[in-house]
Amino acid sequence: MHAGFIFATGIENSNPTIEGGRVRMDELDKCGHYQYWKRDFELVRELGLGVLRYGPPLYRTYLGPNRFDWEFADLAFAELRRRNIVPIVDLCHFGLPDWIGNFQNPDFPSLFADYAAAFARRYPWVQMYTPINEMWICAVFSALYGWWNEQQRSDTAFVTAIKHLVKANILAMHAIIKVRPDALFIQSESTEYFHAESPDAIRLAEFNNARRFLALDLNYGRRVDSDMYEYLLDNGMRRDEYHFFLSHNLKHHCIMGNDYYRTNEHYVSADGMTRAAGEIFGYAVITHQYYNRYRLPVMHTETNLCQGPAGDEAVYWLKKEWANVLRVRNNGVPLIGFTWYSLTDQVDWDSALRRNNGNVNALGLFDLDRKIRPVGVAYRELVKDWEAVLPTKSICLQVPIVMPHEFGGEITSLDPESPASGAIQG
Which sequence ranges are marked TM in the entry (predicted)? Predict the structure, then answer.
């Protein structure tokens, strides 16, 4: 089939480590998905949605080289297929298994590609993937801000994380394409902007505004700006590593997923410090910056806002983001989808998962009791009102999605290289 406009939500599956690797911040656990997974998939359909950003927990599924525990993934993906929900499969969301360590590990890219290949063989009906979610944010929070995983704070650690994350993403795409030649990759990435607070901060803001593109530049094989090329080489990237990205990209299989929150715009001061700026340019302006750079179809892959004391703050934000989406489309950008992230409330994102406090954040379409929030009602109505009005304008621009029920390939419940279903495999 050729899909019209894609309305989606997601089930939050972040799992970075904090406190020197001793604590795992597993959002699927914190939000009750391991208990309520069937109900969660039912809620997706109750909203009138047929597409879900979703993935199994990497650290619980990938137990070692060629060792996988597919038990939970088998249950979840069988249910998604039964309900004819298209998953955009999120294979790595901010965390790695303990045995791999963190994003400084040079073995991570090839090991992750092995996992992606095993997943694609096991679930051949899955067509759409985000192999690694928000590579830029993952590298910044893990290796520049010192919040997660390796908890380092240096440009060298950041460049190392970026090159490993993007290489892993590219190798995973190549591995999946071998199994599913019509695979589509929606690279969910945070769209950022840095505003200079004073004339003395202009140079620093320009540097940050160049660095924000690094993950996507490398992923799409775009030659980086000269300042960034020097920055990469000064901080540990070799010339041959850089040329790998220029020659191995799969841009023609990609849709640029972009994420926008109120926290995506920053003030930069003369001393190099940054702080939240709130919404200044907004989604439409910043999306045009990214589209003009890469010239790829776009999907708005994440946004949310807390339901505040008045109860309508998230509804207002949804309406504002949707107006921005329509503006971008009307300006001629091939924007093919929109996502409220996530299905349910999240936990501890008020500290960016830096602290294991158990604070519930009212960001979801449903609360953690699976009761619909006002923004859930508003999104359901928005989808109902707009889905028939917004087919992609040209047959040439429609997304060639094969629905789970339409997949005609050979289906087996087993990875052909694994001896048993569900159980831990070696």
Answer: none
